[in-house]
Amino acid sequence: MSMADRDGVIWLDGEMVPWRDAKTHVLTHTLHYGLGCFEGVRAYHTENGPAIFRLKEHTDRLFRSAHILNMKMPFTKEELNEAQCAAVRENNLDEAYLRPMVFLGSEGMGLRADNLKVHAMVAAWSWPSYMSPEAKELGIKVRTSSYTRHHVNITMCKAKANGNYINSMLALNEAISGGAEEALLLDNEGYVAEGSGENIFIVRDGVLHTPELTSCLEGITRATILDFARDMGLEVRERRITRD
Ligand SMILES: Cc1ncc(COP(=O)(O)O)c(C=O)c1O
User: Fold this and answer.
1) Which of 147, 218, 221 has most ligand 1 atoms within 8 Å of CB, for mutation?
2) How does the average pLDDT of the chain come out, rounded?
3) DSSP-derived 3-state class of residue 237
4) Is 45's pLDDT higher than 90?
5) Please, are residues 44 and 114 in contact by the beta-carbon 8 Å criterion?
6) Domains along the chain with CATH numbers
7) Is the shortest distance between the CB of 184 and ligand 1 below 6 Å?
8) What is the ipTM of this complex?
């Protein structure tokens, strides 16, 4: 089923619109140059109804991304939080993937366009598993990518920016076409950075290791895992990791 052809509603610029009507023009600036930012958020089933995992942290990161990219947010954090709750609620979802995105409109074209409106949207739908359900039990085959992860001075690595994902898609497509399920991206000095869409951890001799925050995304799951580990009294080391 096409993502565009579904029942339900999408929050777009402050109002709920029918799913199939949540459209934007082909001259939308972000579509051409990739300057936009987004989040990937999950709501999980609980006995008390769906619960959005770390909603505040995701919205905070979305606003930080917009700030880093110099996009003036047209809504408050509270409005974006409420939009995400409403997207789950009004689509009658018990568990959901949520995709808030902030993008530049079609008011102008070219890199010098200075009249661009900042738009925001939130969609929510059921997307049970990012990889195959068996992957959690069996593990996955990961291949070190021939693509280097972004360098901090090439793009803004702390922003979850649309355009940054060209790098992820190239790496993932390469890994999949080579028979693996995920790519391991190294930074420009050859140290482990992250996967195409997730941070990476190693547990070795009771110590949890993860790459420091340079070229990898400041993951919310990463922060949560580090919190859990510290709560459990597990030693955590954020450091450079080599592929071997
Ligand atoms: C490149 C990349 N790294 C890491 C992550 C993990 O981030 P989070 O735990 O906030 O979902 C993501 C998630 O989308 C990602 O795209």
Assistant:
1) 221
2) 96
3) strand
4) yes
5) no
6) 9-125 (3.30.470.10), 135-238 (3.20.10.10)
7) no
8) 0.98
